[in-house]
Amino acid sequence: MEDFLLELAPPLIKGILLGGLYVVIALGLSLVFGVMKLINVGHGDLVILGSYFAWAIMGWLGIDPFLSLVMGVPLFFVLGFFVQKFIINRTLRISLDAALIACFGISIIVQSLCQAIWTPFNRTLLTDYRLLNFAVGTVSIPFRYLLDFIGGLAVMIALREFLRRTYLGKAISAASQNEPVAERMGINPNRVYSFAFAIAMACAAVAGVLQGLTFSFNPTSGPPFLIISFGVIILGGLGSMAGTFIGGMIFGLTQTLGAHLSGSMMVQTIAPYLLVFVVLAVRPQGIFGR
Amino acid sequence: MKIPRLTTLAPVAVLVVLALFPVIGIPLSWLNYLFFFFIYLALANMWNLLAGYTGLICLCPAAFVGLAGYTLAIGTQVGVPFQVGLIAGAAVAALFALLISYPVFRMKGIYFAIGTLILPQALKGLFSYWRPVGNEYQGMGAGYSVIGSAGFTLMDKYWLALAIAAAAIFLVYIIIRARLGLGLTAIRDNENTAASSGVNIFRLKLSIFIIAAFIMGLAGAAYFIYSPRINPVGGFSIRWLIMPLMATVIGGEGIEEGPIMGAAVVTFLTFLLADYGAWSLLIQGIILVAVVVGMPQGIAGMLRQVGAYRFPQKLLQAAEAKIHKN
Predict the structure, then answer these.
(1) Looking at the DSSP assignment, which residues form a beta bridge with residue A135?
(2) For testing the chain B interface, which of A112, A113, A117, A265 should be mutated: the one with the most B CBs within 10 Å?
(3) Is residue A137 part of a domain?
(4) What Å distances lie between residue A66 and A129, A209, A229, B179, B312, CA to CA?
(5) Is the Cβ of B103 closer than 8 Å to some Cβ of chain A?
(6) Which domain does A42 fall in, by range?
(7) Which of A77, B35, B282, B308 has its CA 20 to 30 A from that of B325?
(8) Residues 181-210 of chain A whose Cβ lies under 8 A from any Cβ of chain B
(9) Does B284 touch chain A (CB under 8 A)?
(10) Are B56 and B113 in contact (CB under 8 A)?
């Protein structure tokens, strides 16, 4: 029994730490989902674009991926602002389905852009600290998982403070709670949408770096992240930061524990999808949902 | 003798001409292009039926195509003739649609879209590790060859694809003019009102989902007879969603002739840009976004709006009047 528990410790810790990565991805997705009721189907691909951006900067200037965020975050922010302004806001006026298809088009564009520029081969962000381990008692855990957790926590707290303390943040919260009333209070929904998408893209840039440090990636590895982070939102409930955080942990644990207990790669791959599907079918409003 | 009307005669004439293409010595490359056109056409027509007429943004054609392809490939591995495998593949796709119908129809709107997006990904994961027959891994992933279709020439494959595409078009033609089609558009426009007016939403959605899955499976299996090797990445590739979605949206969603025009555009672009690798899909993606933003009703909708059909319709009526004068 003791052996079993001791063996269970690494996947448990890894799963919880890995949850941080899913939280960062899900926060960007949920911000857009909250204000526009639209799932950005291309969010996973934008995360991968973030990974590639960090990878390219690393190869070009030789600087640390986290330092490359100094360029990556503003660039993604501006890009997101204009994508929303010129593409998604226009399609939202037609219908939500049109906007969904536009997002799908963006997903195709980003995927094939990555493939065209960086070839379809697997890449990783190779840094000195990527392969380091740290010890918890007698258990050794890869350092990069800890980075995921710290990253997730940092982005979550930053976003939470932003939404609570700044005018723009309050406007975004207001628009996601009740848009018609928010509009009557003098909030311009289109502007809020643009900023929400821009912030979501900035989150994607951060998530891209964390993702690239944790896993290897290729141009088509985006959609699984989209599905998992969507599951995190559904499980955690929209607009609930704590729920999102717990949702992220649950998905991290599903993956690592599933692989550990069954000992097969198949379970590790499929378990998160099944979880999302079951949650969607049983309780679409989420477990911690309002 | 009663002369059939020109509007019924014209599609038959087009079909006969297309069916005669291989016999009259069309270049082989053309048969290849047209084969892809027919497969995309069948997929796009079914996607249009789901998204355009019923309002179900179904992102899982790849699941139907991949399952049908795998059924066909595994079937031929254990000695089933590929003709039977073709039908069995489509039947398995339809069965899968039946199995998932209850959970996915509980999801509405955007939830339905994401819920269906999960399925091909999960199946891809399943088939990457699960190998029901044959020995262990052969190279990358759990790939299978379709065997026993060597005697099936390009001409036969062409006719098969043509038959599937024609069946898909005919099916949509029938459905949207029947009671079923009326119920479907009612569901698309307002589900609650449709339900309160006595439309059995679940049964209608289910029947349309199964029909679409069957035809998509048929088209997918036909593709894997044409290109007789399947692996998880190719079978459940997002391409099986991209092509019908793009064809439908560019051509015109919820318009009967939309997917036909869209599939022609998409096939043309695919082969025109074939030498540019990933840039080809990039350009198609940009066109898709441009169409959604600038011309949401698609090519067919645009043509209807500017009245481009009026002149040919007048000609047709005049010709009809002359023929049926006596």
Answers:
(1) A140
(2) A112
(3) yes
(4) 12, 7, 22, 60, 63
(5) yes
(6) 21-219
(7) B308
(8) none
(9) yes
(10) no
Specify the CATH number of the domain B6-323.
Answer: 1.10.3470
Distance between CA atoms of residues B130 and A232, nearest Å: 27
Average pLDDT of chain A, as a whole number: 87
3-state secondary structure of B154: helix
Residue A258, pLDDT score: 82
Cβ(B47)–Cβ(B244) below 8 Å:
yes
Give the closest-approach CA distance of B122 to chain A in angstroms: 5
Question: A281 touching B, CB under 8 A?
Answer: yes
Residue B51 near residue B244 (C-beta atoms within 8 A): no
What pLDDT band is residue A187 in, cutting at 50, 70 and 90? confident
Tens digits of residue pLDDT in B150-190: 778 888 889 999 999 999 999 999 998 888 888 888 888 88
Q: pTM for the whole thing? A: 0.89
How close does chain A come to B284, measured CA to CA in Å?
8
| pLDDT tens track for A49-79 | 999 999 999 888 888 888 888 889 999 999 9
Within a domain: A200: yes
- Identify whether the C-beta of residue A45 lies closer than 8 Å to the C-beta of residue A111: yes
Residues B280-288: what's their mean pLDDT? 89
Supply the DSSP symbol for B275: G
Separation of alpha carbons A158 and A165, rounded Å: 10
Whether A141 and chain B come into contact, CB under 8 Å, resolves to: no
DSSP letter for each residue of B36-104: HHHHHHHHHHHHIIIIIIS------HHHHHHHHHHHHHHHHHTT--HHHHHHHHHHHHHHHHHHHHHHH
Is residue A209 a part of any domain in this protein?
Answer: yes
φ/ψ (deg, to 5) at B230: -125, 140
CA neighbours within 13 Å on the CB side: how many for A186?
2
Angle of the B28-47 helix axis to the B61-77 helix axis, nearest 10: 120
Q: Is B91 exposed, middle or buried (0-12, 13-18, 19+ CB in 10 A)?
A: middle
Contact list, A224 vs chain B (CB under 8 Å): 121
The tokens describing B273, both together, are: 């840009």
Range in B25-29, B81-85, B252-256 the model is least confident about: B25-29
CA dihedral A19, A225, B129, A120 (to 10 degrees): -130
If you average pLDDT over residues B275-298, what whole number do you get? Answer: 87
> Do the domain assignments include residue A132?
yes
Domain positions in chain B: 6-323
> Radius of gyration of chain A from Cα atoms?
19
Interface contact A112-B281, CB threshold 8 A:
yes
Kindly determine whether residue B104 and residue A105, on different chains, have CB atoms separated by under 8 Å.
no
Q: Residue B278: its chain A contacts at CB < 8 A?
A: 112-113, 115-116, 120, 219
Distance from CA of B117 to the nearest CA of A (A): 8
Mark yes or no for CB contact B119/A108 under 8 Å.
Answer: no
Rounded CA-CA distance A239/A176 in Å is 8
Tell me whether residues A108 and B107 touch, CB distance under 8 A.
no
Interface of B with A in 115-144 (CB under 8 A): 115, 117-119, 121-122, 125-126, 128-130
Whether B66 shows a pLDDT value over 80: the answer reads yes
Interface probe, candidates A87, A91, A97, A274, chain B, greatest B C-beta count within 10 A? A97
Task: Find all residues with CB under 8 Å of A137, minimum gap 6, and list them.
Answer: A9
